[in-house]
């Protein structure tokens, strides 16, 4: 099934309105000129006919194809994916621009249903591929080099072989996918429709979350308590969504005989469970020297006996609260990208000039930020909710990194371009690091350097510590749901069980914070997605240490890694840099970079 993009940044997103300059908006005409475009009608008609034709030509016959025949089959399947992906990208991006618009929501739903119906006859493709004997498949690859290029796709498909159901059941689950999508839409529309009143102003969730970074502590507290109040008012809806989604997953996993709730995510990420567990253990063991230590420093800077949840992302007392307008943000990121390698700046430039970025905060627009690759014959689209804070500049650097990665990987073609989530964060986090280092080099005073260092540490804690805590919460949630229905209070208790451990003794937790699981989209849209952030950050920190060491030819190796898209396993991609994610010490290398920044902050206190 074609999946939609969704906002995937951590939940510290921004909202509000200021004079930020000329903020760009998407021009979706590179996909389709409108929902009534004749090209869209033509593609839907073609897709319906081609799906039926593909099934008629190949169902029950895959095992009998020679190498040339299988290559032709794969290419036809790839073309179907491209056309379906183009339609769903258009419908999804249009919807995310204004999620409260009933017509856009209906159009998205209609397109999803049509494409699900059209592609149901294609379910046989992966099922029959998995029935081909290994030796027979190897012989086919040996006979045709162009077919052999698709070996990584076959390998990932065949990883599902032990969990494959009958053809009839697989088709049933494919059709049933639209029901799960409806619950995701309920979540999105509920979140987008929430209204919060702070200091007499009516705000959406973006605007209210933004106030958690306000300099005025009273305003931060009011915003946090209003968030808690509104979440509590809607908690039964959020609990119902989570219960239903987790139960649906449990049923499917049980039928597939998957050993854990996380197994499907690990398979789709093309990563071994023991590698993820090594990452999780390394991060949890590092809580005291990372988050606990940093937040104790911040508690002192803020002059507090105890920090409350509304202080977690508070600006530092010495922080410059000036607003960074769009032109300055663009220049900062582009300068950093060009300084690393002009090729990176070249790829990034069209995003700003051709309507590939939608930056402004607008009523009804989806919260968060993402870079959606659409399909390999078009280009990515970046969504932001830009309000001119330094962290918004880092978000731009992050999403633009995704965009550069997606452009470079596009030459692999539709089936090989997409990277597993664990590797999908590589270029984005690297882009953030380049931008951070550029800003740090230009800091004019010790105070500016301190603020930049603290901001980067906070972002890393949000990316590593917070996301692993999220992952632990999800593990507990899905395990508990297997035992029965969860009340809102049950879910609240699971949420709080990971918060104190990850944030540390510097914090107290207000009444109502236990509901803050409710608004995080990852849990609903893509269970266990979150560990990919920590994986990506750790990987990039290790990569950056190689870059800083002056390793010869690093830039060329880096571009080759991004160009590979999903055509190589993480072991193959990291080997040219002398790195191996399956080595437990690998994660310590990444975590030590964060710890080193905290060391520098502590040294500035002496």
Automatic annotation (TrEMBL):
Co-factor(s): Zn(2+)
Entry's cofactor comment: Binds 1 zinc ion.
Cell membrane is among the record's keywords: no
Keyword list, A-Z: Hydrolase, Metal-binding, Metalloprotease, Protease, Zinc
Protein origin, superkingdom: Bacteria
Residues covered by the Oligopeptidase F N-terminal domain: 128-196
Positions of the Peptidase M3A/M3B catalytic domain: 211-591
Family designation: Belongs to the peptidase M3 family.
Name the record gives this protein: M3 family oligoendopeptidase
């Amino acid at each position: 099934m074609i999946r939609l993009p969704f906002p995937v940044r951590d939940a510290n997103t921004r909202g509000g309105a200021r004079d930020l300059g000329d903020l760009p908006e998407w021009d979706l005409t590179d996909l389709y000129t409108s929902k009534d475009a004749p090209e869209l009608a033509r593609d839907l008609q073609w897709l319906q006919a081609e799906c039926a034709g593909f099934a008629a030509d190949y169902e029950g016959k895959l095992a009998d194809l020679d190498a040339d025949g299988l290559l032709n089959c794969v290419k036809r399947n790839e073309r179907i994916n491209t056309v379906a992906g183009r339609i769903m990208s258009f419908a999804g991006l249009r919807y995310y621009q204004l999620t409260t618009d009933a017509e856009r929501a209906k159009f998205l739903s209609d397109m999803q249903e049509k494409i699900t119906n059209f592609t149901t006859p294609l379910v046989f493709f992966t099922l029959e591929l998995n029935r081909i004997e290994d030796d027979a498949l190897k012989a086919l690859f040996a006979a045709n080099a162009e077919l052999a290029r698709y070996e990584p796709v076959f390998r990932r498909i065949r990883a599902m072989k032990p969990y494959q159901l009958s053809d009839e059941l697989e088709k049933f689950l494919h059709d049933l996918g639209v029901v799960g999508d409806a619950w995701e839409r309920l979540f999105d529309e509920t979140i987008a429709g929430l209204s919060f009143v702070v200091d007499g102003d009516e705000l959406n969730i973006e605007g209210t979350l933004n106030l958690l970074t306000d300099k005025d502590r009273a305003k931060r507290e009011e915003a946090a308590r209003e968030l808690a109040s509104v979440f509590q008012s809607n908690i039964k809806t959020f609990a119902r969504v989570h219960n239903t989604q987790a139960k649906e997953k449990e049923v499917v996993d049980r039928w597939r005989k998957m050993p854990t709730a996380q197994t499907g995510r690990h398979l789709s990420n093309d990563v071994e469970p023991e590698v993820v567990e090594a990452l999780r253990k390394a991060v949890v063991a590092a809580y005291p020297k990372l988050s606990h230590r940093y937040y104790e420093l911040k508690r002192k800077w803020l002059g507090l006996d105890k920090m409350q949840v509304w202080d977690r992302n508070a600006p530092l007392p010495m922080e410059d609260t000036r607003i960074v307008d769009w032109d300055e943000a663009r220049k900062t990121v582009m300068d950093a990208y060009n300084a690393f390698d002009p090729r990176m700046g070249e790829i990034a430039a069209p995003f700003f000039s051709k309507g590939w970025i939608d930056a402004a905060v607008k009523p009804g627009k989806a919260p968060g930020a993402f870079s959606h690759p659409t399909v390999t014959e078009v280009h990515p689209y970046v969504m932001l909710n830009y309000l001119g804070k330094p962290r918004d500049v880092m978000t731009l650097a992050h999403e633009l990194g995704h965009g550069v990665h997606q452009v470079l990987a596009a030459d692999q073609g539709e089936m090989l371009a997409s990277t597993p989530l664990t590797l999908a964060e590589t270029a984005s986090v690297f882009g953030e690091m380049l931008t951070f280092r550029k800003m740090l080099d230009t800091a004019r005073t010790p105070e500016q350097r301190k603020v930049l260092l603290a901001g980067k540490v906070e972002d890393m804690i949000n990316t590593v510590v917070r996301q692993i805590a999220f992952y632990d919460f999800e593990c507990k949630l899905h395990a508990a749901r297997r035992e029965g229905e969860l009340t809102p209070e049950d879910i609240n208790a699971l949420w709080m069980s990971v918060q104190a451990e990850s944030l540390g003794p510097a914090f107290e937790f207000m009444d109502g914070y236990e509901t803050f699981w409710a608004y995080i989209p990852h849990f609903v849209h893509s269970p266990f997605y979150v560990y990919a952030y920590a994986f990506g950050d750790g990987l990039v920190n290790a990569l950056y240490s190689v870059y800083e060491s002056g390793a010869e030819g690093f830039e060329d190796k880096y571009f080759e890694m991004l160009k590979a898209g999903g055509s190589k396993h993480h072991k193959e991609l990291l080997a040219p840099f002398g790195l191996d994610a399956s080595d437990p010490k690998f994660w310590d290398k990444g975590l030590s970079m964060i710890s080193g920044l905290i060391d520098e902050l502590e040294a500035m206190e002496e």
